[in-house]
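Fold these two proteins, one after the other.
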Amino acid sequence: MKILVSADMEGATGVTWPADVLPGTPQWERCRSLFTSDVNAAALGFYDGGADEVLVNEAHWTMRNLLLERLDDRVQMLTGKHKSLSMVEGIQHGDVDAVAFVGYHTGAGTEGVLAHTYLANSITGVWLNGARASEGLLNAHVAAEYGVPVVLVTGDDLTCADAAGYAPDARTVAVKDYVSRYAAVCRTPARTAADIRAAAKEAAALAGRYTPVDGGPFTVELEFDAEHLAAAATVVPGVAVSGERRVSYTSETMYEGIRTFKAVTTIVSSAVEEQYG
């Protein structure tokens, strides 16, 4: 049994504001330990449940945040940027039996601690086939295309509620309760580690590849906080203006859809000016 852990940081234990996840700040350095604790707890739980292999894919910002030296020796970690499937890189090789979303968060324009979708700002909403889409929802559709179930989701309480929409059978662990985008009621790392490990052990029983789901076509629509960002996004082939500050595109597969999404966000981020956005 091989488990892929897609590890994001905004939904980690104790994380509540931008400096906690911004590489290079003192707060980020401290929160790296909390993030690593969550991920390690998930890995230990999966091993407790019978997993033979756990591959952790770093999915936050620079994708160089976890402390490798603090992970269980059985764990392997994929770190660094420029990966074909970004947050769920590794799922495409046919040997992953389940995926866990650890440290996830809610989507752009919704309530949730550090809520966003790919870009911290600039994107005010994302819709997939008309439904509001978080990173979890987008990545779950990629996983389904490879026949891999989402078996565990951790983050704030609203992230766990969001997961019920795209992975209803998954085990969820709320490490904090939403108060505002930059505030939460947080559990201690000792408590969250125990909760995550227990949930991952149960989640291991849900592992097992199934017949890949052909759910396409997929229409993705993005809304930005400035009109020039929508114009910039249309540089990507197939992306067209669909409304005020909005663009959309349609892909036959979610593999293509998530790669186009990555291209759009990369182009848009380069068009953001420091003061005016």
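Now the second one:
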Amino acid sequence: MSGPSGRIDAVLVCGGQWHDFDYARLQLLSALADYEHVRTRVFENYDCLEAIDSADLLITYTCNVVPDVGQQQALIDFVGRGGRWLALHGTNAAIEPTAPGSPSKYVTPRSMGDLPAVIGSQFLGHPPIAPYLVEITDPDHPFVADVEPFEVTDELYISELHPPIQVLAHTRFVGASTGFEEGHTSVDEPRPVLYLKDHGDGTVCYFTLGHCRGRFDVQDLGIDDLGKVDRGSWVVPQFDTILARCLEWAITGLISPEPA
């Protein structure tokens, strides 16, 4: 898929609500800069169909950025033709406020058409941010080889899954996704944190970790200044190791993991 000179064209979509997208964008572009043959175009949403159509790889770090019908099809076509899509954190989220008087604050409407079936999941809710353990599901896979279970303080995603997916890392949770209409769990079963989903000739790699938030990122919720900065999993060495391997795969289609 690369050009005759070996150049790789990447598209990074990074934007949305309630997160520090400046920080995430900087981290991802800094990592991509280590690959001198990669040229990256950056957008805040999916209104970039020409770029996606010509891209070799797609990286998304969004929250509540819902593609319209045409954009949904462009993303489906990108994967189907052999594209590699590294979908991070809230890429699978569509969130709307509930009606006045509702016991919950947010609903997660099924407004992304057939796209969740291609990326393998759709966000339903998450419990309050707290430490949790990430366990390795497939220790022989190069994305997670030699990575021991590790703790993160991040958003723990409860999602509607669209199998088959190849789960590489997971966590466990039983309880309520406070504030959300859905995402409440009573069954203790693995919750995917990192997985692969094939579609057509391409593959989506979904990594749910990566929450980050600055002091001024939730002003639309009536909080002018949170008074703190939250870097979530970005400061966890195991997250950095796995993300680097996922990026290498997205760029090259191959992975030769460095020791964890």
